[in-house]
Amino acid sequence: MEKRAIFASQWLPYALLAPQIVVTILFFFLPAGQMLYQSVHIQDAFGGNLQFVGFDNFTELFYDPLYLASFKVTAVFSVAVAVLGLVISLVLAAFADRVIHGAGVYKTLLIWPYAVAPAIAGVLWLFMFNPTLGIVAYWLRQRGVDWNYILYDGQALLLVILAAVWKQVSYNFLFFLAGLQSIPKSLIEAAAIDGAGPLKRFATIVFPLLSPTTFFLLVVNIVYAFFDTFGIIDTATSGGPGQATEILVYKVYKDGFKALDLGGSAAQSAILMAIVVALTVVQFRYVERKVQY
Amino acid sequence: MVENRPFLTFLTHALLILGVAIIAFPVYVTFIASTHTVQEVLAAPMPLTPGSHLLENYLAALQHGAGESTAGVGRMMLNSLISALVIAIGKIAISLLSAFAIVYFRFPLRNFFFWMIFVTLMVPVEVRILPTYKVVSDLGMLDSYAGITIPLIASATATFLFRQFFLTIPDELAEAARIDGAGPLRFLRDVVIPLSRTNIAALFVILFIYGWNQYLWPLLVTTQEEMYTTVIGIKRMMLGGDAAVEWQLVMATAMLAMLPPALVVLLMQKWFVKGLVETEK
Q1: Which residue, B56, B76, B55, is CA-closest to B65?
Q2: A41: helix, coil or strand?
Q3: For residue B106, which of A145, A173, A209, A7 has the smallest C-alpha distance?
Q4: Under 8 Å CB-to-CB from B206, ≥6 apart: which residues?
Q5: Which end of chain A is more exposed for a tag (fewer CB within 10 A), N or C?
Q6: Interatomic CA distance for residues B235 and A281, integer angstroms
Q7: Which candidate from B41, B110, B273 shows the least CB-CB separation from A174?
């Protein structure tokens, strides 16, 4: 779609674009170029002695058990966050859609965690599950559970998954509710007259009609789990114990800023960038974005 | 609802109330902890009813912070507010201008610029932290509001949103403005911006929350306590081992850090929902 009515000026459009383009070049293209350049070089930690090594940094990564372990943690983490988050919010949205009086109240009470910073979400969940002072940790011990996420890998991973899901449910809920409310009531009524109960109607009519929303949310949730959960990991577990909760983004940060392995960190960034590009392409090509709200 | 099933209605409300309670529980515990003394918080199990030290804890946190961080949370809240406002308003301003240029002008390299803005979607800040940090430090912007905000200010999403919206503005308006002798800037100020008000409000809510909740970036570019934002201030307060942490103050700070964005969501719910749905389309 193009405009017919346009203005003519030799310089004005460039002036209007200038601020955005300058910021983009300085803080996106320059660093991204630098990163790709670094990823095929090695350098000592003091910034001297740059040496071209081709794809050595990448090959090294794929022989590095720590990096492969981080890939596995990321996979488990993002699938768990996406699936749990989608299931819980779909159930809540499906019930909220049935409510006639007070639906707005439930909506208001369910959407506010969106406003909580991931780093704060990490603090809140750490505080409840802290083995020495957490209230939930205390209840778990009363029931004979040996809870100590500072020592046990699985428990630490579970904790960050729960915190990440808690924060994301509100977002998924809003989109599912909007999707549910856009389904024509006549379809549901027709099915009810034909004798289909609520569960059958959900499985055969509602859920299939929600599939564009579900697929869209799946991609968004995976992107969220990959990148936006950095704060949760950093405040709740700092990637520990060992590498149990060290997702890829966290490892880029740790290797780059703490261990000062510039080439390795840049190669990891390049791989992450390839993952984002792939996810963005999927989102733009295959996600039906004409859902009616 | 298409049929009356009392049991299902009961189940619906029971489940939703349970959901609301579970979602609210972490914040409830945080609030309770922020009203007790540190000894009460450390006692296992900690109390689950409000204590009597609410005012004292919040005042202490606001004035002197806690633990390794000696900067007051009042100062941090101010830093967060300034950063969030600059990020939100800056993103809206530069995106509005670039979308206007792309939609209302024909000029060489127009598509090139458009794609240049588009690809920034694919490089989240988490991925390019080290080289971006280097650029910011070379420009001498560490420990400044400019360093915290400007690198986050480019926005492909907002540019798209405005572009989509401008394409729906009837051409007759631009023609009429031209016939009446209004130049492009006059048209932008008197027609396009007033028509974009609802889009601007919706974007503002989303971007304010985005700016307020930034974590990794301010963590890297700030080293002086006076420049900490609230969200990263909390992390510094928790350094120093379980026993040394003044949990009641950390929890008061967490409440303070959640309050402004939560209020924005609750008070501007309509704009919030609109912004969320539109920025993801």
Answers
A1: B76
A2: strand
A3: A7
A4: B272, B275, B276, B279
A5: N
A6: 35
A7: B273
3-state secondary structure B58-127: HHHHHHHCECCECCCHHHHHHHHHHHHHHHHHHHHHHHHHHHHHHHHECCCCHHHHHHHHHHHHHCCCCC
C-alpha atoms less than 13 angstroms from C-alpha of A151 in its C-beta half-sphere: 5
Q: Identify the residue whose tokens are 């990096």.
A: A67
- What phi and psi values does residue B238 have, to the nearest 5 degrees? -95, -5
Q: Does B102 touch chain A (CB under 8 A)?
A: yes
Residues 6+ away with beta carbon under 8 Å from B64? B70, B72
What is the token pair recorded at A152?
A: 């046990």
The DSSP secondary-structure symbol of B66 reads: B
Is A278 in CB contact (< 8 Å) with chain B?
no
Radius of gyration, alpha carbons of chain B:
24
Residue B198 and residue B184: Cα distance in Å, rounded?
A: 21
User: For residue B109, what are the contacts with CB-CB under 8 A and spacing of at least 6?
Assistant: none
What are the φ and ψ backbone dihedral angles of B124, each rounded to 5 degrees? -60, 155
CA–CA dist A290, B20 (Å, integer) = 30
Nearest to A164 by CA among A105, A108, A222: A222
Both tokens of residue B47?
A: 């109390």
Answer for the pair A57, A39: CB distance below 8 angstroms, yes or no. Answer: yes
Cis geometry, peptide bond prior to residue A241 (ω within 30 degrees of 0): yes
Does the bond joining B45 to the residue before it have cis omega, within 30 degrees of 0? yes
Cα-based distances in Å from A19 to A202, B153, B221, B278: 50, 10, 22, 24
Angle between helices B269-279 and A153-181 in degrees, nearest 10: 100
Q: How far is CA A182 from CA A97, B13, B133, in A?
A: 11, 22, 45
Is A224's Cβ below 8 Å from some Cβ in B?
no
Q: Which two tokens stand for residue A185?
A: 């009531």
Which residues are registered as beta bridge partners of B69? B66
B122 contacts chain A (CB < 8 A): yes
Instruction: Give contacts of B 157-216 with A, CB under 8 A.
Output: 159, 167, 171-172, 174-175, 178, 183-185, 187, 209, 212-216
ipTM of predicted assembly, 2 dp: 0.89
Q: Which of A26, A112, A123 sits opposite B266 (nearest CB)?
A: A112
Q: Vertex A50, ends A49 and A53: CA angle to 5°?
A: 130
* Collapsed DSSP state (helix, strand, coil) of residue A52: strand
Give B46's Cβ-side CA count (13 Å radius): 30
Instruction: Identify whether the C-beta of residue A128 lies closer than 8 Å to the C-beta of residue B26.
Output: yes
Residues B50/B35, Cβ–Cβ less than 8 Å: yes
